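Summary for the steering committee. The consortium agreed at its last meeting that each partner would contribute one worked example illustrating the joint modelling workflow. Our contribution is presented below. We chose a case with several input lines so that the handling of multiple components could be demonstrated. No manual editing was applied between input and output; the record is shown as generated.
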Amino acid sequence: MILKEIETKINEQVFAEAKSSHLYLSMASWAETKGYAGVAKFFYLHSDEEREHMLKLIKYINERGGHALIPSIPQPLKVFDCLAHVFKDFLDHEVAISNMINGLVDLCLKNKDYTTHNFLQWYVAEQIEEEALARTILDKLKLIGDDKGGLYLFDRDLEKFPTDE
Ligand code: OFO
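What follows is the complete predicted structure of the assembly.
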């Protein structure tokens, strides 16, 4: 049986992953309307991944005798200034998610909930990858600046970007 305090915190994480999925869907849609097919594909896939992260948490809470609560999701940002804005928000968002995961890990250790601690290790590893990816992409965009040819190639590269799940 999962501790109530931990159940509540994982439910907050469910909400955070749902918001991530929504935000990335909004980024995908914006990019699509601007002709950035590669960026759109990248964020459509990322949105799906975040939904998977959310589902994993929902199933875990219920398997441990808790009750996963399905939140309503506020409307995410609809319009972005440029690609650098999109990817800066992507990085900031992932850093915030990492902080939440770390807080959860900490809570599990304090309460000696080693089962949940073990379950969360997948998220810890995932966040390292996500943050590194966001930083790498943002660095590339900084190098490209306003160069249209560079942005075209950047978008084309993202279209071929491999997905890990
Ligand atoms: Fe992109 O993060 Fe989920 O967990």
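The mean pLDDT is 96. The CA atoms of residues 30 and 79 lie 7 Å apart.
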